[in-house]
Amino acid sequence: MSDDPETARQIEELAADDRPLLVLDVDDVVLEFIRPFPHFLKARGFGLTLASFRLTGNIAETASGRLVEQAEVTALLDEFFHTQADWQSITDGAADALAGLGDRAEIVMLTAMPHKHRATRRVHLDAHGLNYPLLTTEMAKGPALAKLRGKNGRPIAFVDDQPPNLVSARNSVSDAHLFHLMADNSLRAFLPPVTDDIVVVQDWHEAAPLIASALGL
After folding, report:
1. Is 59 in contact with 76 (CB distance < 8 Å)?
2. Cα–Cα distance for residue pair 147/168, rounded to 1 Å
3. What is the mean pLDDT of residues 99-120?
4. Type and span of the H or E element at 48
5. Contact 110, 50 (CB under 8 A)
6. Does the pLDDT at position 51 exceed 90?
7. How many CB atoms neighbour CB 170 within 10 A?
């Protein structure tokens, strides 16, 4: 599983920090995604039917009913991320939870998105008072987590809504504390159960004390 060299470069820019480490996914963990995205699509003449936990195959052109292929999904996502400030708000409870953890832990946001959108997302997060470092990756998240943790074996927790990212984390950092949090819990019905070593949380109000405990805060 290889590193994303641009992600590695971003990590090297971070100030040294030996506090316990909390790494957060952004979409549907810190920022709402699956609730605003259908409104964005509707404004462009498309509709989203959540018949499975994926976008490709579930987006159709409203006028014709034509299902949108992968390349067009990518283009729509690209436009959404370019205009994210118009659509994405903070996930309920996230700001307070992070404020309560941030003085005792290093908090880093790790988002799977094209690097070209990093600056736009940085401005959007800052506007909401979420001034934590932001890393983008176009490859698996596990290697980035291992690099972020460093060599001193400090406690690490990772929160994501996508089970494959949590598996990637486990493969790279065997003792990481893993949390599965989804802004829209109704989508859990489309997912197989996560493994027993992943803590399922319903929202940030439940997650915050469990993360604090896992990191020994």
Report:
1. yes
2. 13
3. 96
4. strand 46-48
5. no
6. no
7. 18
